[in-house]
Amino acid sequence: xxxxxxxxxxxxxxxxxxxxxxxxxxxxxxxxxxxxxxxxxxxxxxxxxxxxxxxxxxxxxxxxxxxxxxxxxxxxxxxxxxxxxxxxxxxxxxxxxxxxxxxxxxxxxxxxxxxxxxxxxxxxxxxxxxxxxxxxxxxxxxxxxxxxxxxxxxxxxxxxxxxxxxxxxxxxxxxxxxxxxxxxxxxxxxxxxxxxxxxxxxxxxxxxxxxxxxxxxxxxxxxxxxxxxxxxxxxxxxxxxxxxxxxxxxxxxxxxxxxxxxxxxxxxxxxxxxxxxxxxxx
Length: 282
Fold this sequence. Notes:
By secondary structure, the chain is mainly alpha-helical. It has a single domain (67-279), classed as MetI-like (MetI-like fold, Orthogonal Bundle), CATH 1.10.3720. It has helices spanning 2-11, 14-42, 51-58, 60-93, 96-107, 114-125, 130-138, 151-175, 179-187, 192-220, 224-229, 237-247, 251-279; strands spanning 43-44, 47-48. The longest helix is centred in the N-terminal third of the chain and has 34 residues, at 60-93. The model has no long low-confidence stretch (mean pLDDT 83).
């Protein structure tokens, strides 16, 4: 009775009624379509079925797209880590006022449309772009280098978009590392190189791993960058879903592929939450 009374009291509070419209929008706009999508992937005219999932995992064309997506996501994550970790470490060592300037330069791309930033790479890396014209002028190549309309172009554009998602949280985690631990190691005779590898780097690994998982998850759902910089030659899951939904259409198969992507994303998100908890100070 007390539990029911407490529930009724919370339900009648003004705060609940303020949140109710937002909750209704989330249920109708997100949860309901998601449930319909999952139901369509598991149910057909005869009832429960796994036929659509068997079709996804038995068809070599779909498996190639899945493999291509995960390969691009993995390469993008590694490249972001190789570029982002030194950048975050350099930001940490800057004076405070220069940190603000450098962080502003990292954040500025968020103010520009992804579509605009993606098309900008065509100007830079196209056959008549800035890079190829410079290579030809310097005599380093006899013909334009194919930077675009392949996996290389997609990876370059994706890294450009997602690098801040790794740098910013990693930089924040590095700032939380206690300087006294580093000074204690130095006072015991450790060299700066030893202090970094034995003390600083292990403490920053959870944040680096969490940022890497976040970049990997975001890459799985990329659509605009592969469509523009891939030139229709690089197929990823989002582009395949667009094909099944808008051109074929095959909603049942699109639902099954979406369900697979959802499961993978949720699993990776659970890993991300685990890593962020590990990285938090106790």
